[in-house]
Amino acid sequence: MSKILVVGSLHHDTMLHAHHRPEKGETVIGSGCSYKFGGKGGNQAVSAANAGAAVRFVGAVGADQQGRFLLSVLASRGVDIQHIKALPQVPSGISVAIMDADNDYGAVVVSNANNHIDTAQLSEDVVWQQVSMLLLQNEVPAAINLQAAHQAKKRGVRVCLNAAPARTLSTDLQAAIDLLVVNAVEARELSGMPIDNLAAACAAAQALSHRFPAVVVTAGEHGVAFCQSGQQSHSLPAVQVQLVSTHGAGDCFMGVLCTALLQGQTLAQAVAQANQVAAEHVSRQPALPDALPTA
Predict the structure, then answer these.
(1) What is the mean pLDDT of residues 87-94?
(2) So where does ATP get bound (predicted)?
(3) pLDDT digits (tens, 9 = 90+) for 110-126
């Protein structure tokens, strides 16, 4: 069975709920707190596994309670965790997110162990056995992504980058990417074009397709645009749902998208499926906390 190899981040998330996110110098009284499995790499791996993909993960956690929890969640979803190192010298990655009354959020991430992923194992053939797609994000150092992408290209493995959060991509990394997925902010940073409607997302996808073989631009409530190099861009409107929480929507989209492509669907079919599942995700109440408070 073909596999998705995820090289990426794992975070122990603290979710805070408040009426609004604090301004500079402001203290806000919150209304709730929960602890969850997170990290873009981890969330996307779980999403892909839930969608039916066989998933292998290369990453790092601390040799701490948070790290043990992160590994247990991945293993419980059927993700291959044998290439995730538990490092005694650094703590696991963490994030703190604040969800406001409008069900939107902002977050602060501290990478910790995610900055110390052992890239030597990426040259080992066992890591790449049965792998047909590499999935990357921007929550680990750029050098790690570049090394993983180079190893993938040597083996004829398709490389998908979810360029989140936004940062400058090296020429070498850009040359290795087969599919680029960005949201409106990241598309603006890479294309120089503001994304405030679906037509603008289409224009950005078209422009970026001159640099990447395939591009997907997610534009939140406007919908999603996509384009393959040498073709016209296309778009789908957002699926109309009652918004409950946007947290994790992008990672849900990525896991479903990559799984659909791995299963042989066209880009248009895969985008449509991911668009639908992500809409269902934002319309549901968040699951119960995956972790208890840690000392």
Answers:
(1) 96
(2) 183, 218-223, 250-251, 275
(3) 999 999 999 999 999 99
Long-range contacts formed by 284-288: CB under 8 A, 24+ apart? 284/244, 284/245, 285/244, 285/245, 286/15, 286/34, 286/36, 286/244, 286/245, 286/247
What are the phi and psi torsion angles at 130 (to 5°)?
65, 10
Q: How many CB atoms lie within 10 A of CB 121?
A: 13
The C-alpha atoms of residue 30 and residue 169 are separated, in whole angstroms, by 37
Residue 211's CB is within 10 A of a number of other CB atoms, namely: 15
* Of 45, 37, 61, nearest in space to 114 by CA: 61
Task: Say whether 83 counts as a known binding-site residue.
Answer: no
Q: Which residues are catalytic?
A: 251
Residue 242 has phi, psi (to 5 degrees) of: -85, 115
> Is the CB of residue 219 less than 8 Å from the CB of residue 256?
no
Identity (one letter) of the amino acid at 278? Answer: A
Residue 115 is assigned to a ligand binding site: no
CA atoms within 13 A on the CB side of 157: 28
pTM of the model as a whole:
0.91
